């Protein structure tokens, strides 16, 4: 210890009021600072004052070191934390990458603001009904053109429908963009390419095509371009199922999954063939046909003639809309369908327990109600059983039965069959096919509706109602999509359905529908001939009729319901033209069943038991006479 | 010791750097390949869609009907009818082979020649062979029912008129 230090210590002691301990005090004293009093006290005790001071200094130093270490440790911890976090992040990221599914980077993101995909449509067996084809559109950017006049002339040569002068005018009037053709074929594209004009460009397009052509045209409807961009264009449904299920078809998530319809293209074609033949034979204006599964309501074929090509859907409507090719007679056309409604009246009174099949009904005629007169088509006995009323198709008998049931019950019953609402089928046109009902459901309405006048529905309504009645009585709603659910609530009892089927079979075996009998298929059904109302009002037209046949086969356990409707058909083979359904719609139905049933895999069943050589053939009579 | 550590660490850094470089470029290559493959897949898909559409177009019912009408006589095509269903009972059991197994092909070829003169020598030749089984004679004694006859019977049973000319669908069973 030096003297200076001591003196310093002394001075500081003399200086007075310094606190006894604390880091500040020690520092001011200096490292080896010893207080004079301590030195004196140490000397008096006989200790070494320096040792005292040294120990105090040592304590001080230790304290400082501890302090420094504390700070350093904190810094160290911070650093360690930072490193742990950094390496942790790296390790975590690696773990995430290692655990993730390997996925490919997205190829090309579309820059368009809309989506151009559209799902395909196939029939129930997978035959393609609608698909997309890549084509090209042609557009021009006149400000980049080298020689507009030459380009216009060359284009007019490739596309005969373009006018060279008009095109040149449009190339030179200062616009910067111009569509020339919506869709061009690959060959045309090559030709345009060969012009060598930099201002002509191609944009990719998807074109909706219907490979089956005319087949199922009314179901498919057609499509058109919606929003158009240079790189793609949106396809929009225009009619039919394309419009009704537009959202489903455009849904990008389900674009790769084709929409499967309940239609069978082979059946559709065969049915259309038969109807086309019938239209020719009977000089009809048009025809409609529906083939429906009796239990599920799946439509196997929906035909409307005349038809059109959905690839080139006709647009111009001139004349009566109901005669236009795009008019769907089966699902859109509202017709008074005539005597086929007698089945509903019979079902109603059977179900209500008002009469049984053998109940005698008064069929004297004509009946008068105000200025209306109800009479029968041909002479009939004065009294007949309910069953015979249907078989002989008696208007007066049916009208009396309907009066027995009353308006309320009739309305409820027809409503339960779905005949008073638009059909729930997936067609845009069907939404407009709301049945035409009388304004006031008066007594005369009850009578006329009982035999199918005064209430206009579509043939599709008719098919669904017949399916409901013959399948055991459970409500069927028609659908065009494969995989329909089970039938809905019960409308008539199984017993009523059975009795009704027996009557319908009798209509074909011995009544007005004899010409519809297709041997081996046990058809049961009802004919209907309805005079058409005059287009400009003023009653009905005697010479223009809608001939309808509605039935089911095989009637003992119905699988299919068939409806055939011919517009203004007449059989001119005899001396007098015959217009009743039994001579037009019924033979057409027979031809249709004989064409269609083998395609559906239904084998004809032999009514009389064949001799012992073929014992394995099960004889199904099913229908009592 | 320490310098060895440094050298080792540096070598490790260099090595991992080289590895990372390689992996990076391999990844970029793979990405480029993926993109190429994807565009190729897209092109193939498009081609498939076009071919499917073309197939459907060539198989459209209207065209098939036209072709069937044009070649119907030649190939025996016509729309299916209810009478075209047969029963299992109507199919004849195949008659036993007329000759020993070794000569079967030859015998079948002979049997298929329709004219009787061709069949007669075969019938005469049969007894001369000591090893020929009794089968041929049985076969001749009880000729298998002709398919055409059975079809006719079926038609009659169903009350449907026999078609004028019935193309044979079950060729070979006769």
Question: Hey, which two chains have the biggest interface?
Answer: A-B, 39 and 34 residues
Mean pLDDT of chain B: 71
Low-confidence parts of chain A:
1-31, 608-625
Percentage of residues in helical conformation of chain B: 55-70%
Order of helices and strands of chain B: HHHHHH
Question: How does the overall form of chain B come out from the CA principal axes?
Answer: elongated
Find the count of extended strands of chain A (DSSP E, 2+ residues): 18
Mean pLDDT across residues of chain A: 84
**For the CA atoms, what is the radius of gyration of chain A?**
46 Å
Number of helices of chain A: 19
From the spread of the alpha carbons, the general shape of chain A counts as elongated
State the assembly state of the protein chains: heterodimer
Binned, the helix content of chain A reads 25-40%
Give the helix/strand class of chain A.
Answer: alpha+beta
C-alpha termini separation of chain B? 99 Å
- Rg of Cα set of chain B: 37 Å
Tell me about the largest β-sheet of chain B: none
| Quantity of strands of chain B, as a count | 0
Count of alpha and pi helical runs of chain B: 6
What is the strand content of chain A? Answer: 15-25%
- Span between termini of chain A: 143 Å
What do these coordinates show?
The complex is a heterodimer of chains A (625) and B (174). With 625 residues, chain A is an alpha+beta fold. Chain A has 19 helices and 18 strands. Chain A has helices spanning 3-15, 23-29, 36-45, 49-99, 148-158, 164-172, 186-195, 217-220, 240-244, 246-250, 265-281, 342-352, 386-392, 395-405, 407-416, 443-450, 459-470, 494-510, 585-599; strands at 121-122, 128-140, 178-184, 200-209, 222-228, 233-239, 259-260, 286-293, 299-305, 335-336, 360-362, 367-369, 372-374, 383-385, 456-457, 524-533, 540-553, 560-567. In chain A, strands 1, 2, 3, 4 and 7 form a 5-stranded mixed beta sheet that branches. A 5-stranded antiparallel beta sheet of chain A has the order 9-8-18-17-16, sandwiched between helices. Chain A is elongated, with a radius of gyration of 46 Å. The termini of chain A are far apart. The relative contact order of chain A is 0.09. Mean pLDDT of chain A is 84; it is low at 1-31 and 608-625. Helix content of chain B is 65%, strand content 0%. Chain B is built from 6 helices and no strands. Chain B has helices at residues 2-58, 61-75, 104-112, 116-128, 135-141, 147-158. Chain B is elongated, with a radius of gyration of 37 Å. At the A-B interface, β2, α11 and α19 of A face α1 and α2 of B.
């Amino acid at each position: 210890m030096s003297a200076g230090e001591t003196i310093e210590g002394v001075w500081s002691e003399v200086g007075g009021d310094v606190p006894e301990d604390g880091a500040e005090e020690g520092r001011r004293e200096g490292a080896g600072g010893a207080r004079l009093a301590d030195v004196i006290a140490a000397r008096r005790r006989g200790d070494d004052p320096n040792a005292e001071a040294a120990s105090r200094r040592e304590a001080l130093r230790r304290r400082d070191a501890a302090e420094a270490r504390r700070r350093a440790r904190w810094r160290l911890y911070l650093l360690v934390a930072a490193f742990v976090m950094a390496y942790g992040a790296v390790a975590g990221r690696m773990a995430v990458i290692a655990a993730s599914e390997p996925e490919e980077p997205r190829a090309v993101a579309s820059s368009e603001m809309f989506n151009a995909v559209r799902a395909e449509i196939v029939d129930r067996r997978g035959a393609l009904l609608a698909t997309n084809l890549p084509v090209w559109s042609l557009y021009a950017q006149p400000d980049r053109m080298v020689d507009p006049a030459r380009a216009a002339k060359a284009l007019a040569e490739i596309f005969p429908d373009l006018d060279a002068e008009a095109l040149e005018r449009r190339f030179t009037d200062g616009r910067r963009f111009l569509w020339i053709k919506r869709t061009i074929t690959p060959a045309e594209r090559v030709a345009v390419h060969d012009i060598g004009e930099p201002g002509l460009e191609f944009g990719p397009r998807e074109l909706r095509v219907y490979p089956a052509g005319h087949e199922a045209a009314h179901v498919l409807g057609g499509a058109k371009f919606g929003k158009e961009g240079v790189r793609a264009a949106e396809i929009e449904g225009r009619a039919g199922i394309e419009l009704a299920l537009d959202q489903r078809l455009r849904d990008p998530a389900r674009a790769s999954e084709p929409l499967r319809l309940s239609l069978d293209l082979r059946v559709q074609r065969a049915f259309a063939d038969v109807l086309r033949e019938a239209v020719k034979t009977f000089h009809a204006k048009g025809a409609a046909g529906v083939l429906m599964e009796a239990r599920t309501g799946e439509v196997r074929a929906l035909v409307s003639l005349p038809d059109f090509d959905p690839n080139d859907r006709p647009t111009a409507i001139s004349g009566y809309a109901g005669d236009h090719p795009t008019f769907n007679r089966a699902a859109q056309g509202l017709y008074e369908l005539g005597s086929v409604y007698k089945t509903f009246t019979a079902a109603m009174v059977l179900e209500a327990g008002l009469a049984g099949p053998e109940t005698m009904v008064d069929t004297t005629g004509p009946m008068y109600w105000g200025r209306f007169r109800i009479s029968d088509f041909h002479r009939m006995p004065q009294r007949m059983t309910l069953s015979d009323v249907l078989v002989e198709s008696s208007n007066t008998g049916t009208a009396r039965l309907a009066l027995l049931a009353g308006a309320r019950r009739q309305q409820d019953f027809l409503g339960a069959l779905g005949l008073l609402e638009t059909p729930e089928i997936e067609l845009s046109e069907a939404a407009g096919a709301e049945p035409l009902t009388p304004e006031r459901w008066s007594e005369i309405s009850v009578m006329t509706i009982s035999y199918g006048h005064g209430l206009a529905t579509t043939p599709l309504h008719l098919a669904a109602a017949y399916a409901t009645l013959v399948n055991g009585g459970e409500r069927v709603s028609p659908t065009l999509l494969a995989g329909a659910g089970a039938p809905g609530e019960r409308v008539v009892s199984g017993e009523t359905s059975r009795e009704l089927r027996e009557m319908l079979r009798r209509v074909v075996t011995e009544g007005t529908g004899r010409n519809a009998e297709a041997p081996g298929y046990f058809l049961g059904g009802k004919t209907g001939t309805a005079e058409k109302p005059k287009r400009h009002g003023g009653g009905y037209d005697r010479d223009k009729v809608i001939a309808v046949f509605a039935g089911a086969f095989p009637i003992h356990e119905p699988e299919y319901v068939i409806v055939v409707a011919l517009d203004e058909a007449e059989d001119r083979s005899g001396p007098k033209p015959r217009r009743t359904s039994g001579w037009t719609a019924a033979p057409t139905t027979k031809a249709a069943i004989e064409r269609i049933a083998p395609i559906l895999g239904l084998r004809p069943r032999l009514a009389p038991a064949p001799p012992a050589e073929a014992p394995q053939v099960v004889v199904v009579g099913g229908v009592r006479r | 010791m320490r310098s060895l550590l440094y050298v080792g660490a540096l070598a490790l850094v260099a090595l991992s750097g080289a590895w990372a470089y390689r992996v990076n470029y391999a990844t970029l290559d793979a990405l480029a390949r993926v993109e190429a493959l994807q565009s190729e897949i897209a092109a193939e898909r498009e081609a498939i869609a076009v071919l499917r559409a073309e197939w459907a177009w060539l198989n459209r019912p209207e065209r098939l009907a036209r072709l069937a009408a044009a070649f119907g006589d030649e190939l025996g095509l016509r729309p299916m009818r209810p009478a075209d269903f047969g029963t299992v009972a109507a199919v004849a059991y195949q008659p036993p082979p007329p000759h020993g197994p070794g000569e079967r092909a030859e015998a079948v070829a002979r049997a298929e020649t329709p004219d009787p003169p061709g069949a007669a020598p075969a019938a005469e030749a049969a007894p001369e062979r000591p090893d020929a089984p009794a089968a041929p004679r049985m076969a001749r004694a009880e000729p298998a029912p002709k398919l055409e006859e059975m079809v006719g019977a079926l038609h009659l049973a169903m009350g449907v008129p026999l078609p004028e000319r019935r193309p044979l669908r079950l060729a070979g069973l006769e």
